[in-house]
Design goal:
eleven-stranded mixed beta sheet; D-Maltodextrin-Binding Protein, domain 2; 15 helices; transport; alpha/beta; about 40% helix
Length: about 350
């Protein structure tokens, strides 16, 4: 069965919010005019109020519901200034294209660094975002895992089980979703790992066939990781391939899912950056810088860990390391040659993913 792209009402809210923000972001200046300059030549942070426009990938929504008011409270205590937020949550690649196309977000929070690079290449990020706030620009980590119904009725234990007849698989569409690209990277990389174990070297043809054998069982390709999870919650599919944090946060809330950690999977890293051109235009530079710095702080990292993310802060990760499993075959994007190689090999018009999608 060919996978179908689920569409409909569950995306309408996000779409309307994005449209609203496109109309209002340019008006997001502080009520003092935002034109004062401090000794560094940057816009000063006056008292009164300031609006910060957040453009984030969809999976960040739940944790940001706690992070934003926590930051606002800290900023108010430190500066006397009230921060209000305009928020847009979309599939990562969709959000990146929107910002690069003119959506005036002050801060971008993406599923993968290549989406930040799209915004940078469009001229909106001018600072070295990887070095500006530490942690190579990343604010969270995760891994690609599988989620099943309670009791794991299909007996799913590793990627190979997803190739069995009758197993219905969900993951999102890599054209729009950064999470989907992480999922596909994980499966393709696991195929490379398996071929390497058998032959002593990576075999791209083997990895492609491995990915293709899983994709045959895909029931739907949703727009985003969050939409794919919603489809799973509505009863679609036997197994969902997703971020570990998406599953852990739900399991901790009492949802009857089970996490299956594959023997080989990819380390996911999620970046955040100030969108310099927009923050300077809006007079929100100081608060934008402070917010991204806050995301790297121990306080924010503890909040993110509550939502199933693996902290990038070493001290906080040490506090919560017992909550996470490290699979023996864990690899990062460098195992696949880095993002430039991945974009060329997997996601170019003639790349592996599009060959698999076409059944080739």
């Amino acid at each position: 069965m060919k996978p179908t792209l689920l569409k409909g009402w569950r995306f309408a809210g996000a779409a309307l919010l994005s449209i609203t923000l496109l109309l209002t972001a340019a008006c997001g200046k502080d009520d003092t005019g935002g034109s004062a300059i401090d000794g560094s030549g940057q816009p000063a942070a006056p008292k009164g109020s300031v609006t910060l426009v957040i453009g984030a990938y969809s999976v960040a929504r739940d944790s940001f519901a706690e992070l934003l008011p926590a930051f606002a409270k800290q900023w108010k205590a430190k500066t006397g200034q009230t921060v209000t937020f305009q928020e847009s949550y979309e599939a990562s690649s969709t959000q990146a294209r929107a910002i690069a196309g003119g959506f005036e977000a002050d801060v971008a929070v993406m599923a993968m660094e290549s989406d930040i690079e799209k915004i940078q290449q469009a001229g909106f990020i001018t600072n070295d975002w990887r070095k500006q706030f530490g942690d190579a620009g990343m604010i969270t980590r995760s891994i690609a895992v599988m989620g099943t119904r309670k009791g794991n009725p299909k007996g799913i234990h590793d990627w190979g089980d997803l190739t069995r007849k009758g197993v219905k698989v969900l993951y999102p569409n890599p054209k729009t979703s950064g999470g989907a690209q992480w999922d596909i990277n994980a499966m393709y990389g696991a195929g490379l790992k398996e071929s390497e174990a058998k032959t002593g070297k990576k075999d791209p043809a083997y990895a492609k066939a491995f990915l293709k054998s899983i994709h045959r069982n895909v029931e739907s390709l949703d727009k985003s990781g969050r939409a794919s999870m919603a489809a799973f919650e509505y009863g679609f599919g036997d197994v969902i391939i997703t971020y570990e944090n998406e599953l852990l946060s739900r399991i901790r809330q009492g949802v009857a899912y089970e996490e299956v950690v594959p023997s080989s999977t990819i380390l996911i890293e999620n970046p955040a950056a100030v969108v310099d051109k927009n923050a300077d235009k809006h007079g929100s530079r100081k608060v934008a810088d402070a917010f991204v710095a806050y995301l790297h702080s121990e306080d924010a990292q503890r909040i993110l860990a509550k939502y199933g993310f693996r902290p990038v802060n070493a001290s906080v990760m040490n506090e919560v390391k017992g909550d996470f499993v490290t699979p023996p075959g864990l690899f990062d994007i460098s195992y696949l040659g880095g993002w430039n190689e991945v974009r060329s090999t997997l996601y170019s018009p003639k790349g592996v993913w599009y060959q698999v999608l076409a059944g080739n």
